[in-house]
Amino acid sequence: MRDNNIIITCSNVNFYYGGFRALTDVTMDFEQNRVTALIGPSGCGKSTLLRLLNRMNDLIDGTRVEGKILFEGTDIYGDKVDPVEIRRRIGMVFQKPNPFPKSIFNNITYGPRLSGMSRKSDLEGLVERSLRQASLWEEVKDILGQSAMMLSGGQQQRLCIARALAMKPDILLMDEPTSALDPISTAKIEELIDELKKQYTIIIVTHNMQQAARVSDDTGFFYLGKLIEFNPTEKLFTNPDEKQTEDYITGRFG
After folding, report:
1. Residue 1 lies in a domain
2. Which of 169, 174, 204, 240 has its Cα between 20 and 30 A from that of 196?
3. What domain count does the chain have?
4. Domain range for residue 10?
5. What is the predicted pLDDT for the residue at 1?
6. How distant, in Å, are the alpha carbons of 67, 102, 120, 156, 253 from that of 38?
């Protein structure tokens, strides 16, 4: 029986960059309204997996994927699936804040306008709602016409979260969203993740194990392209099933 709370299922996923196999037989389920952290040393495949979930790797020449990734029961690599629609429903926030060199207002409305939203009142409402969701509204509501490039790094990252939310996704992917930020900005984004999971499913890649322990409900540990262990976060950090996981989280290797 399929669990109704599962929103994405990966079955025997292999991924290749040319002749290099970056992921080997990855099988895991992601549940709705939970935060899943992907941890492991650099180059272990966690960001590759994240980008597979919204077909971002399609943009890299010479790559191929095997196995199945089902999003709400549909194979996202099926022939009839539109990758643009997948990226709308599965939004992404990158490691470095990457606002467009436009006004704060136009950063948020860029995607919705491309999708056909044009009424000024609708756009204004969307901007306020998205910025409130990203805990940024109070800081920028009087400067919406100014360039997003003048915001601090932490504000820019929250703007990028707001920009992703403006597309009304079901899932938010975050690839080390705080690695370029100071501790105060990091804490704000971690609080935000906790708030957002009431409405969204969040999958986060992080190098910071303390962060994974703080923000996630479930954690997957990757090593050399393989999923070594996938468990509720508390169990994985306190009583892991695999010795390799224990060695990694206690700092014996990695």
Report:
1. no
2. 240
3. 1
4. 6-249
5. 33
6. 19, 32, 39, 23, 17
Amino acid at the residue 40:
G
Q: Which two tokens stand for residue 20?
A: 């290099």
CATH code of residue 101: 3.40.50.300
Residue 216 and residue 222: Cα distance in Å, rounded? 16
254 domain-assigned: no
For residue 254, what pLDDT is reported?
54
CA 226 to chain centre: 19
pLDDT band of 2, cuts 50, 70, 90: very low
Dihedral sign (CA 43, 44, 47, 53)? positive
Q: What is the pLDDT of residue 107?
A: 98
pLDDT tens for each residue of 5-48: 999 999 999 999 999 999 999 999 999 999 999 999 999 999 99
Any domain includes 195: yes
Which residues, in sequence order, are bridge partners of residue 227? Answer: 222
CA distances in angstroms from 136 to 23, 126, 151, 201, listed in the order given = 37, 13, 11, 20
pLDDT tier, 252 (very low <50, low <70, confident <90, very high otherwise): confident
Residues contacting residue 235 through CB under 8 Å, at least 6 positions apart: none
